[in-house]
Design brief:
- Helix content is about 5%, strand content about 40%.
- By secondary structure, the protein is mainly beta.
- It has a single domain, classed as Beta-galactosidase, Chain A, domain 5, CATH 2.70.98.
- It has a 10-stranded antiparallel β-sheet, with helices on one face. Strands 5, 6, 11, 13, 16, 19, 20 and 21 form an 8-stranded antiparallel β-sheet that branches.
- β8 and β9 form a beta hairpin.
- The longest helix has 12 residues.
- It is globular and about 65 Å long.
- The two termini are about 25 Å apart.
């Protein structure tokens, strides 16, 4: 269930598996969850072929898969080159903590912990960052997952409600207020045909012929999904009212370009004193045999029965 394997030029990787799925995590760099798939199935995560097997590079490498960043995004601390060997410790039969060397230049120590269920495909992902420096630091743990090209992302929207002026039960000024947030990056374009803003869902289709686009949301819906090659990847996470999230309150961000689509969770923005830690927790699941999703009716028919209620 936990074994050392070779993977695409790297000699040292850890495979966590049960009868229903497997993950491969790099140990020569990272850590990166570089593969996640059903038995004999499609790897839902993007791998940049030219970057496979490399180590020790001076510059940060995207490589693909799931990584551990810290927000707010900048060109120094965020893009610290995670190109050094990683230590691992088995906490339980299918729970492993991966610890890269400390990033002494910025006084932070990251630990990525993965816990695979004994049955099924659910993986709990915990990203913990500790201030190992001498001064307080502001940050949020950040979990971007780089998905393979060719799929469509599904982001559920809050339920619709009528205008309070047209109903008889409006009781407070709050009934007239907004209930969702949408943050746009400078290269987002409403005319971009990759996006569909529907009544119940936002869709983002990865297109190998189009460049960068990005949005962020507070996102209280509990899950997002990505359907590719008849495989559904689900990422689940919570939202805490009153918390401060980076980038104008975005708990969830999504980015796409010609190479991939990225599903990004952001933890709470906090000030860590020396010795203090912050964590981001999310979970993943895979489902096979899911048809292509082209409409909201398709999501209701094929995706919702698998996802269940928010937070399930």
């Amino acid at each position: 269930m936990v074994e050392l394997v070779e993977y695409r030029g790297w000699k040292n990787n850890l495979k966590l598996s049960n009868a229903d799925c497997e993950l491969i995590v790099t140990l020569d760099v990272g850590p990166r969850v570089i593969a996640y798939r059903l038995p004999g199935g499609f790897n839902v995560m993007k791998n940049y072929t030219a970057m496979m097997g490399g180590t020790g590079e001076a510059e940060w490498q995207i490589r693909g898969g799931h990584r551990f960043w810290v927000a707010p995004e900048d060109l120094t601390r965020t893009y610290f080159p995670d190109n050094r060997p990683v230590k691992w410790e088995q906490k339980s039969p299918l729970e492993v903590a991966f610890t890269p060397p400390p990033e002494t230049e910025y006084g932070v120590q990251k630990v990525m912990t993965l816990k695979l269920a004994e049955q099924g495909t659910r993986v709990q992902v915990t990203l913990t960052v500790t201030n190992v420096g001498k001064e307080p630091t502001d940050l949020a743990p950040w979990g971007p997952t780089v998905m393979a090209p060719g799929g469509v992302e599904v982001i559920p929207l809050p339920p619709k409600a009528p205008h309070p002026g047209h109903v008889s039960n409006a009781k407070s000024p709050a009934d007239y207020g907004p209930n969702q947030e949408l943050v746009l990056w400078p290269y987002f374009d409403f005319a971009d045909t990759r996006w569909t803003f529907g009544a119940k869902y936002i869709f983002l289709r990865q297109d190998v012929n189009k460049g960068p686009t990005k949005i962020g949301l507070a996102h209280r819906g509990g899950w997002v999904g990505y359907v590719n090659s008849n495989t559904l990847f689900v990422k689940r996470f919570d939202y805490r009212d009153g918390a401060v999230y980076p980038d104008r309150g975005t708990r969830y961000q999504t980015f796409s370009n010609e190479d991939m689509l990225e599903m990004e969770t952001c933890g709470e923005l906090v000030t860590l004193k020396p010795g203090e830690s912050a964590s981001l927790v999310e979970s993943w699941e895979l489902f096979g045999g899911v048809p292509d999703v082209r409409s909201e009716a398709d999501v209701d028919r094929w995706v919702l029965p698998l996802v269940g209620e928010p937070g399930a």
